[in-house]
Amino acid sequence: MNAINVIAPYKYLDMWVFDDERVGLVQEPFVSGADTMIDKVVAHISNAEQGFVMLFSATPFPGHDIKLEWRRPDGGGNWYFSEALDMEGWLCPALFKYFSAAPQEIYVQIKAKKSDAA
C-alpha cells in the first residue's frame, strides 16, 4: 500500500465521486458529511467540480491541509472528525482499498489540477 495516496474527485450527478482504476473503484461517492467537507475545502478552487487533486495518508506529510481524527465505526465504514472544519464525515468501506485497518488519523492535502492552476 502507498504511504501517500492520490485521487481526483469530481462532481457527477451533483455528488462528489472519484475513480481509481488501480483499486477497482468507479464513481465511488463521498456521502454522509464527507461530501460537505469537500464542498468546504474546495471553495477556493475554481472549477473544482471538474476535478481536483486529493492526497491522503495515515501519516503526516509536508503540505497537508487537514487532519481527520477517527471517531467510531458505523455501517462498515468509519466516522472521522476534522477540528479545522469543525465537521464530521463518514468514509465508506472503500477506505479499506487504501488501508488495511481504519487509521486513527488521516492527513489530507487538496490541490487544484495543474490545468486549473494559474
Give the low-confidence spans. none
Helix content: under 10%
| Number of DSSP E strands | 9
Number of helices: 1
| Major β-sheet profile | 6 strands, antiparallel
Summarize the structure.
The chain is mostly beta strands and 118 residues long. It is built from 1 helix and 9 strands, in the order ββββαβββββ.
3D structure, described in words:
By secondary structure, the protein is mainly β. It has 1 helix and 9 strands. A 6-stranded antiparallel sheet has the order 1-5-9-6-7-8. Strand 7 and strand 8 form a beta hairpin. It is globular. 22% of the residues are buried. The model has no long low-confidence stretch (mean pLDDT 95).
Describe how the helices and strands are arranged:
Blueprint (H helix, E strand, L loop, with lengths): L4 E3 L2 E3 L2 E6 L4 E5 L4 H8 L10 E6 L8 E9 L2 E6 L4 E5 L13 E8 L6
Antiparallel strand pairs: 1-5, 2-3, 3-4, 5-9, 6-7, 6-9, 7-8
Give keywords.
three-stranded antiparallel sheet, 118 residues, mainly beta, six-stranded antiparallel sheet, globular
